[in-house]
């Protein structure tokens, strides 16, 4: 397997996002992106899809950690 290496700025970004996007809720982001890809392949209006995904991501980020543990 290949090891991914990050430079200082990338590592700093990961550290800042860790409280919001982590192993407890990454599956929600993954599923939403997969759904968006599915719909885009079927010629959905991309502007509407981008807005929908953005709003859902904002909701995922605002979720309490306790909620994410049980999903």
Radius of gyration: 15 Å
Q: Mind summarizing the main beta sheet?
A: none
Shape: extended
The span between the termini is 29 Å
Separate helix tally: 4
Order of helices and strands: HHHH
Helix content: 55-70%
SS-derived structural category: mainly alpha
Low-confidence stretches: none
In terms of DSSP E residues, the strand content is under 5%
- Let me know the average pLDDT: 83
Keyphrases for this structure?
71 residues; 4 helices; extended; mainly alpha
Describe the SSE topology.
Elements: H1 8-17, H2 26-41, H3 46-62, H4 65-69
Helix pairs in contact: 2-3
Report on this model:
The protein has 71 residues and is an all-alpha fold. The protein is 68% helix and 0% strand. It has helices at residues 8-17, 26-41, 46-62, 65-69. Helix 2 (26-41) runs antiparallel to helix 3 (46-62). The longest helix has 17 residues, at 46-62. It is extended, with a radius of gyration of 15 Å. The model has no long low-confidence stretch (mean pLDDT 83).
Précis, in short:
The protein has helices at residues 8-17, 26-41, 46-62, 65-69. By secondary structure, the protein is mostly helical.
């Amino acid at each position: 397997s290949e090891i991914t290496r990050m430079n200082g700025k990338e590592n700093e970004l990961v550290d800042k996002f860790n409280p919001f996007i982590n192993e407890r809720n990454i599956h929600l982001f993954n599923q939403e992106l997969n759904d968006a890809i599915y719909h885009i392949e079927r010629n959905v209006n991309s502007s509407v899809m981008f807005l929908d995904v953005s709003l859902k991501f904002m909701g995922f980020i605002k979720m309490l950690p306790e909620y994410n543990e049980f999903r």
